[in-house]
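Teaching note: in complex prediction, the entire set of molecules is handled at once rather than each chain in isolation. The prompt given to students was simply: 'Predict the structure of this complex.' The entities are:
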Amino acid sequence: MLELQDVSKAFPGHVAVQNVSLTLQQGEFFSLVGPSGCGKTTTLRMVAGFEHPTSGRILLNGQLLNGRKPQERNVSTVFQNYALFPHLTVSENVAFGLRRRGVREPGPQVAEALRAVRLTGKEQRMPAELSGGEKQRVALARSLVLKPDVLLLDEPLAALDPQLRRQVRAELKLLQREAGITFLFVTHDQEEALSLSDRIGVMNAGKLEQVARPEEAYRHPASRFVAGFLGELNWISGAAIRPEATRISPKECGQSVPCRVVHTTFLGSAIRVEVDCGGGLASAELAPRQPAFAAGATAYLYWDPADELCLPA
Amino acid sequence: MLLFALPLGIVIVLSLLTRGDYGGAEQPWTGEAYRRLFDPLYALILWRSLWMAAVATALCLLLGFPLALYISRARKHRGLLLQLVILPFWTSFLIRTYAWLFLLRDTGLINTALLKVGAIHQPLPLLYNDGAVLLGLVYGYLPFMVLPLYAALERIDPSLAEAAADLGAKPLTITLRVIAPLAGSGILAGCLLVFIPSLGAYLTPDLMGGGRTVMVGNLVQNQFTTARDWPFGSAVALALMCITALLLLLFLRRAPADAL
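The expected output is the structure of the full assembly:
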């Protein structure tokens, strides 16, 4: 169990992390998500031991980590650029940590770790000879082979191309379940965080704004920032509604808001209609079978009041 | 090209002639100068020079590596620190060597100060020995070690050292197992840049060795001045050049392509 108690980190000139408190359960997949510069990476680096908190306490299984060097913490980091040792082979990279722990014959454990990330047969390759996805898997194997209490992942998918990213995402989740290791995952990609995590923590300007399960945070955001960061928002006559909960009809019906169609976009699984409701743009999603709206046509927006997001100002 | 080839050609021609009574060289052609190279006395001087240059290079690496590593990791003032490394070049090497003489001689600053506070009763022999020559060589050529090392170290991704620490490596292990192998090209370049001029140095052994510590550079100089044996001086200079070139070739063959 990893606990952050009122942790802050100040650098000369700015406060990167402010009073963050957080508890990760054993085996949990937890994502810290937020825009760049929100303090999520600094938080991760404090857990790893690369940065030291200005105030607050970090505990792992009840033991204080403050003041301990990175070498003295049973956590391991997967870096954004993977940080594989370029002069060592794949198997030597994976064996590096085992050797530092005094394992004389790391062979069997290395083979096991490489099998888990499906890299058997690439043991003697150099990192420069691997694809981005393979490098990422070596970095995972290098950390997982040490059986850390918490695996820290710093935007590990950001360097991959989008198609590969989706596939790796599924593999990562599977690997985490199988290994049963707590993952602390840092990302700026809200879709990644929502789809992977057991719980997410949304950070903004050094503060943790909300900690919740993904659906909970999406449906009941604790702040305007969280609502806007996790998904698109329509602001229609004072109410905040997600585009997918916003309905559009060519005819007036009950409590509806008139608007003018600006633009329609075919998304494959849906049709997105951008409208102007006199004062602001909004968008609604339609099933692809429904008749399209012509640009310039008048239409009416309506929604279930239960779908309105309740946002504190 | 001509500027390079012409003096070399003259030296080759000189080395094959007979010495003149008042310097210079005369007919007839002879290989006498080269035969004398194998005299045990001169072989010893050559061996001493190789040894001194090797020790000076090792000391430069030992001192220069931590310094270059420190500068490459410095969060601020990196440019200033590099400037400080280069700063001695702003003054003539001769003048800086004389400054060392003022510091180290029997009536120099260090001995005078130690005598005054009563730490010693007679001056320490700080000058005119192998140690003094090594000090002079290391002092003179340290920047040539630090600069290529810095260039190599600065290119190494800092997250590699973090990853090594994260995996449990202690600072010394990180330096030896991750940093040093990745700085290999810089280490090689620095060693060559220190070793080659150290091997041929004559000013430092002359002034700080006081003539007692004869290295190949002094031998060449003596042949052209006091001994007035130009052909032999030329032969020694050429031999030195060949040895340097040979060592360079040996090193470069084992080194990666990006070494220099």
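Point out the following to students. The interface with chain B takes residues 48-50, 69-71, 76-77, 79, 81, 83-87, 96-97, 100-101, 142-143, 146 of chain A (CB under 8 Å). Helices of chain A lie at 40-48, 90-100, 107-116, 132-144, 162-179, 190-196, 214-219, 224-230.
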